[in-house]
Amino acid sequence: MKIAFLASHNGSAAKAIAEACLNGTIPARPHLLISNNENANAVSWAKELQLKTALINASNAQNPDSAIAGLLLDHEIDIVICSGYMRLIGQETIAAVHGAILNIHPALLPKYGGKGMYGSHVHKAVFDAGDAETGATIHLVDSEYDRGRILAQKKIPVLPSDSAGDIEEKVKALEPAFYIETLQKIISGDIALR
């Protein structure tokens, strides 16, 4: 199984997955990282791990969706992992891998999802609502932000003493291992993508 990653910044969960593939924890091959940001740290670690990299955005591609889809098809990618990718995924990209695009969201969807709900915005909303728990959701990507079918969720408690920043750190800490565990279950057939 060949994996591609989409990342706009650090892509820390994607890096953990790529390393888990390379050390045999995940029976798959990390192959390609696509970013829309020429300054993304993810591009640096991807090159260090000897993945192919590509920069695709509105500045260098007339239709970024078509360009990404073409690259995925050219490289025969089986599954795409989003890790902090800050653009809506287009229909051509989704079709190129038959809908096998995963995203991790830093909350328990369907709460705190949708356009503008990313990073610290999500954790502030959880804090402001006074929720007793939060976590992360891995879902399939479709044509709307954070609305694809939920594949797995990991819950953690929110303590009365937690600030929004504390909540963010707790969720960030659980994401890489949770993404790896979920991907292992997908590859083994314990979680179905279709």
TrEMBL record:
CDD domains: FMT_core_GART (cd08645). (6R)-10-formyltetrahydrofolate binds at M86, R87, L88, I89, N103. GO terms for molecular function: phosphoribosylglycinamide formyltransferase activity. The record marks D146 as: Raises pKa of active site His. GO terms for biological process: 'de novo' IMP biosynthetic process. The keyword Nucleus does not apply. It comes from the Bacteria. The active site is at H105. Its EC number is 2.1.2.2. Pathway: Purine metabolism; IMP biosynthesis via de novo pathway; N(2)-formyl-N(1)-(5-phospho-D-ribosyl)glycinamide from N(1)-(5-phospho-D-ribosyl)glycinamide (10-formyl THF route): step 1/1. Catalyzes the transfer of a formyl group from 10-formyltetrahydrofolate to 5-phospho-ribosyl-glycinamide (GAR), producing 5-phospho-ribosyl-N-formylglycinamide (FGAR) and tetrahydrofolate. This is Phosphoribosylglycinamide formyltransferase.
